[in-house]
Every structure is written in structure tokens, then in C-alpha cells.
Amino acid sequence: MIEFNQLKYFRKGDIMNLHIGVIKGDGIGPEIVTEAMKVLDKIAELYGHTCEYEELLLGGASIDVHGIPLTDETVERAKTCDAVLMGSIGGDAKTSPWYQLEPSKRPEAGLLAIRKSLNLFANLRPAVLYEDLKGACPLKEEITEGGFDMMIMRELTGGLYFGERNTVEKDGVLTAYDSLTYNETEIRRIAKRAFDIAMKRRKKVTSVDKANVLDSSRLWRKVVAEVAADYPEVELENMLVDNCAMQLVKNPKQFDVILTENMFGDILSDEASMVTGSIGMLASASLNESKFGLYEPSGGSAPDIAGKGVANPIATILSAAMMLKFSFDLDKEADAIENAVAQVLKDGYRTGDIMSDGKTLIGTEEMGDFICERLK
Ligand code: IPM
Ligand code: MG
Hints:
Layout: E1 17-25, H1 29-47, E2 50-55, H2 60-66, H3 72-80, E3 83-88, H4 107-117, E4 122-128, H5 141-144, E5 149-155, E6 165-170, E7 173-178, H6 184-199, E8 204-209, H7 215-228, E9 235-240, H8 241-250, E10 257-260, H9 262-276, E11 283-287, E12 293-297, H10 314-328, H11 331-346, E13 349-350, E14 360-361, H12 364-373
Parallel strand pairs: 1-2, 1-3, 3-12, 5-10, 8-9, 8-10, 13-14
Antiparallel strand pairs: 4-5, 4-11, 6-7, 11-12
Bound molecules: 3-isopropylmalic acid and magnesium ion.
């Protein structure tokens, strides 16, 4: 399938104009995205590229202006961009007026809809234990010794979150249902992505399902095994989702690439990021068949600290690095960002979420500035 923006790409090493859609979003979104843009501008200056940003509305920010969380205009304009950088979507469900709206008009519905409209079926969520942040990891040292580094590959446009659902009343009793459907094509394309990525890593794929109960999981397992046959160098292991949830805290080192369907990936990726102890550090990418992607931090909109200048912008900055790598093939530039982040941590600077004794507490803006200063 030819995707909408596939033909725009330059050759590796060229000077590029990066046409980036920017969804600042809700909560801490605007603050953290501003810092990522600062870093991208600095990279552009150092490497001779130009960045052209196009601000797009999604989620609560879109509801406030248009009454709905995603407009056709946002989708169409996103498609003209080479990639989209996003902050976060959503607010406090107890206090925000957005949650007085019916479920299909709430901020999260906009996020699901844009993933579908842009065909962003492959969600990559790295979970890495940073050497300098080991202290923040909630697991015992004997478990984390030597660190861990896994990539969760979550299917993002199928399954339970996109199946038919309804709430009906039968004889005065309310009944709700959600359906979980996958076809072979959907499973095959995400499995291929997982194996391709494993080839560049430690060559192991753990495919997670609930094949002892669910038909969709049995099909998942069958198709994944077929794909695996084309990757003889990659070890395939099947694991039931309940066991995987346990293994993630028992022995996270065993994982390289975790391949799984939408809801299991949603849950397991939160767990995996938590065991790193630094969710404010974790980036993510949601990719289509070609080079287009939406890049966002793994953490949420944190409305409780929004506007205070204390949020950790590193996950968003690392998401921008992923964007340079996956959508623009600018590996050197992406490495420069990753190295600058590592250096800031080594120099002892921390935002509140990753603070520990003897380190220097700084705010969102300073963190962005300090990373820019360390870019080479
Ligand atoms: C995520 C989020 C979303 C999801 C919500 C906000 C719809 O939890 O990106 O993991 O479940 O996909
Ligand atoms: Mg989630």
C-alpha cells in the first residue's frame, strides 16, 4: 500500500526541511513540547536543516475550540506533514468539563481516532533502565543488575479499542459489550515490524497473547509463527499475558522485543515503564506503513502539575529524537540528542520526578536549555 506522504523523502545525508506537525495537547503537553521544539531548532541550526512547524489541535484543546476532540482539518493537515510531534492528551476526569461530554467526544476519543485516520498501527514503546537513574527503579537491585532494555511493540489500530461496542438494556438490566477482532493482515504487518526491529537489537521476540482462552489470540499466535519463519535468526517465544505481567517485575532482563495486541500492549507498556522508575524519560513512536509517525512521550498529561514548569520534558525530547531516526533517517542528529540527555543526567541535573539525594533539582525550561547546551 502506498501511504500518503511516502514520496517526499530525501536521500540520507541531505540537508532537509523538516515539516513537522505539532500537537501540544493538554495538561503538561504545551510545556514539554516547547522544550522539544527548542531542541529540534538547535539540532537544525547545528546540522544545517530547517524546521517548519504546523500547530494542530487534538483532544481537550480541540474540544475547547471546535467542540470535538479531532476535526477533519487536523487529520488532513497532519497528512501534509512529514511527521507529528505530540505532547499529551486528556485532563482530570473528575474536574474537567471535557468529561461531561459523551465518551465519543472526550479527549481520548480524538487520540484513538487520529491513530486510525493516519493508519498508525505500529506503536513502539521502549522501556530502558538508565544507569544514572537506577535509584528511581522500584525493583530490587539483584533483579535490575546489568540494566534492562526492551521494546514494546503494541498493535495500535485494532482489537478491543476499535471493535463494536454498546450498552443496552434488556429487561431492565444494563449490559455492555466490547468486541475484540483481529484479521491476519493486521497481525502480519505488526509482527513483521517487530521482527525487523528485533533484527537490529538482540534478536528475540516475545509474542504476548491469551491463547489459552481467546480465539483472536490463537490466530495471533499462528500468524506470528508464520512471520517468524522468515526470520530464522530471531528467537520467538510465546507468552501468556498474565505470565508476562509477572515476568516484567520478576525478570525484566529476559525481554528484548515484546510484540502484542492493542489492549495488552496498553497495560504492559505502563507496567514496563513504571519498572524503569522514570516514565518521564520514555519516548514512543506510532508508525504507519511508510515513514510517517506520531511521536509522543509515554507518560500522560499530568494535569496536577500542568503549568507549573516542573514537568520532565526528556521523554518528549527523546520522542523528537525517535522522529529524526524513524521518519527522517537522521541517525546522527538523533544520537546527538540522546547523548546530550545522557550528559545532562551525568552532570547531576534532575526534574522532580527523577530527583534523588545529592542531585540538582531543575525545572522544565532549564532542562530543555541544558540539553541544548550539550548538543554537538
Ligand atoms: C496510551 C493511552 C491511550 C490508549 C488512551 C489515552 C486512549 O493510555 O497511549 O497508552 O489507551 O491507547
Ligand atoms: Mg496507556
